[in-house]
Amino acid sequence: MVSAPRPTRRTMLKAAGGLTVAAGLGAGTILATSLAANAADDGFGLHITDRNESDPRMWYYRFQTAEISWAPGVNVLLPSDYHTSGRTYPVLYLLHGGNGDFIEFDHHHIRELTADKPLIVVMPDGGKAGWYSNPVSSNSGPHNWESFHLNQLVPWVDANFRTYSEFAGRAVAGFSMGGFGALKYTAKYYGHFSSISAHSGPPSLRRDAGLVVHWANVSSAAVDLAGGTIYGAPAWDEKRVSADNPMENLERYRGKRIFLVAGTSPSPDPFDYANETQVLAGQREFKAALDKANIPYTAHEDPGGHMIREDRLAEDLEGIVAHLKKA
Fold first, then answer.
1. By the 8 A CB rule, do 265 and 224 touch?
2. pTM score > 0.85 for this model?
């Protein structure tokens, strides 16, 4: 296979037009022998330590960054005609779920689902329990996923690929923890994403005495932060919780495309039941609040538990392409 040409570094002016935005659920598979690593600083605090651009569509990168204590991976899935069209494309940042990584959506046919779509899909690592956040504390080095995605990765993508680096050209979606990340990034960084999708993602941090906050703290402490936490323990950083909580930031969803999916019949497995029961209740609370505020959305409640529903992902992709600025 002939290697596809390496993306040319675009102007700093274009990058400045989009400076802080972020990302989604992530996926892709490393297909061939990795090309020579490039250790040069690209201007955004990122150093490419590994890359593979041999596949015509799925390009893989691994970065060294001061924001993360290890080298996170990112897959960039290009449109089928990217190398011949000369067109500029909208971008979807697709965020993986808890205990997942940047290849998660390759297991759900993301290549096939986007084969005819005029859309670039960026799928970054977000930590096994990173919660798309900069944690209050860490005993295992930096895990600042929010800063990595918004301050570094998004401008890097805009500088290296033919993208619309603007509100009308960006979407963010995610599954589970990634669905929360998508909801959070959309509200917290108001002018960055015009479409938001949460596939079994929790939109309510404070319901049930803050069960999602507790789960974020416990899971991150156990898996990623060696006892550190996302929101602080035993006392929470209340301002941080409020800033991240979709339920407390409803107006920041106005004028955007919103797509929600939740399962109505989780299995008896305690993990599946606890996750989707909380997701369903939180999404119902969120939808009621959106209704009261006259903010439109599309939502589905489907049989089954905590999982990626490929039919809903396909439907969502169609809606994202229809909503975003055209290539």
1. no
2. yes
